[in-house]
């Protein structure tokens, strides 16, 4: 009877030991698996972040390169704009200088005669160096005094050639016939009205209009 009880206790004790051991193993497994899940995810996140960093760095370097290229292009455009403005300014100065030289040259070989006191003519200017300005018209020629016509444009060039006043700076007060079929006269001044001229021109066959005399008016 006592032996039977002892055997039962011994079996129960052994069973408890086995169960406790199994429970302990299960608990250990749970701890191991849980730690792997936790620390494994953390490591994966760190790895992912580490792997992303080169892309961020590369993108930053590309942005910097693009910014440098943009700055260089902006600087080049600014330089070109400055060069263009400088060239335009130089062109304007040269054009003004040429206009002044043209006006001076137009009277360089001229004979200038003082006008009569009290008359409307201050000076009479004649230049043997004047020549016909050329023409695109064919013979026979008939003068056309309509503004904008081929004759009008060529007569205007002759007036500019004789006086040295650029066509773009010229006021035409009168331009018309001067008594003969091939003779005309024009009264002109620069836009600032600083001086007024009456210019006499004549048609030279196949060569166009030629200045013959200028009267500087009072």
From TrEMBL:
The chain crosses the membrane at residues 21-39. It comes from the Bacteria. Residues 50-84 have a biased composition (Basic and acidic residues). Residues 50-119 are annotated as: Disordered. Residues 125-217 form the DUF1510 domain. Pfam families: DUF1510. The keyword Transmembrane helix applies. Residues 85-107 have a biased composition (Acidic residues). Keywords: Membrane, Transmembrane, Transmembrane helix. This is DUF1510 family protein. It comes from Metabacillus litoralis.
